[in-house]
What does this fold into?
Amino acid sequence: MLTFLKVLWKNVLDGPATEPFPFGETHTPKRLRGKAHIDASKCTGCGTCKSVCAGGAIRLQAREDGTGINFYLWHNSCSFCGYCEMFCPTGAITLSTDWSTAHLNSEKYDYKETEFIPYQHCVECDAPMPRLPESLISDLYGEPNEEIRTLYTLCPECRRKKAAMQMGV
Ligand code: SF4
Ligand code: SF4
It folds into this structure.
């Protein structure tokens, strides 16, 4: 009985051992896999994240007006596997440490991230084409020269024609 009272008294003096959430700050591990986030400025619309998504949480849909791609990510379908982040070639999709995903059942279809990935246009023929983010060009070439920069303003067809002309074909 005396031991019990000692423990009880010690615990009273120490105060609560549990996290004060939701009334105060709580500990979040740095490596926690929380809500996925998409940075539209880095996204090429390649669809790799959609292909590897374990939860079927990602959808890419080309706009009918041909201006680009709508990108959707449903948070309540995400299993936090992290594959999208692992396979994204440009680092456009990342998992945050935001674990607060509680929402009303009536909001489940709207609990999503929506981004627009615009196409760029070929400077020669104006054809729409997926854009190459600056971050990916830097990863590939470091500081790219003017020739490489010009190449990436052309669609594949115009690039082929330019290469053929340079070779004198
Ligand atoms: S987020 Fe990454 S993997 Fe997904 S479409 Fe954009 S560039 Fe491709
Ligand atoms: S973390 Fe996994 S389930 Fe969630 S969006 Fe990325 S690939 Fe899909």
In short: The two ends are 98 Å apart (CA to CA).
